[in-house]
Specification:
This protein is of the alpha/beta class and about 160 residues long. It has a single domain (about 5-150), classed as Transcription Regulator spoIIAA (2-Layer Sandwich), CATH 3.30.750. Helix content is about 45%, strand content about 20%. The chain has helices at about 25-40, 55-60, 65-85, 95-100, 105-110, 120-125, 135-150, and strands spanning about 5-10, 15-20, 45-50, 85-90, 110-115. A 5-stranded mixed sheet has the order 1-2-3-4-5, with helices on both faces. Helix 1 runs parallel beside helix 3. The N and C termini lie far apart (about 35 Å).
């Protein structure tokens, strides 16, 4: 069985980060929805940086689509549109071709993007710090290194 992990961090609020590594179970997915609900309960605007460490972390376990649709119908859709000021998603480079048709703005109605390079995603956040009083890119990177070590090589930026 392949190991998996799911991490979340809101210590740099209003920036909330998540890291998924390995195949995510339905229970892990439900925990992630509960984490989002706790962020929504603050009733404050925020930006989310979602990191997917490997292709397996992007796969959906049976039941996750149904649970997500219900969660969205139960109010998460409105919360995303009113409280989430941007969503930045980082995926492994080898998954980019399969996800090139996905668009954060079209799906969620908020600014954002899907990136295959962490530094590109952080640069986007840096250019959009005005959306929410976001920490500096350097601060975000330092926190990611503290929280997500060992961050898989594929997710780390090769740029400096």
């Amino acid at each position: 069985m392949t190991n998996s992990r799911l991490l979340s961090d809101h210590s740099l609020w209003p920036l909330c980060t998540t890291l998924a590594e390995g195949p995510q179970s339905l229970s892990q997915h439900l925990e992630m929805l509960a984490i989002w609900n706790r962020w929504f309960a603050r009733n404050q605007p925020f930006v989310t940086l979602r990191l997917y460490a490997d292709p397996l972390s992007l796969e959906q376990a049976e039941g996750t689509a149904r649970a997500t649709k219900k969660w969205l119908r139960d109010g998460a859709d409105q919360n995303i549109r009113s409280l989430v000021k941007a969503m930045v998603i980082v995926i492994p480079p080898e998954s980019l071709e399969a996800m090139k048709h996905m668009n954060v703005e079209a799906v969620f109605g908020i600014p954002g993007g899907i990136f295959s390079d962490l530094q590109d995603a952080l640069d986007w956040i840096g250019e959009h710090r005005h959306l929410c009083d976001l920490p500096s890119v350097e601060t975000v990177l330092q926190r990611l290194e503290q929280t997500a070590e060992p961050l898989p090589r594929e997710t780390r930026s090769t740029k400096r």
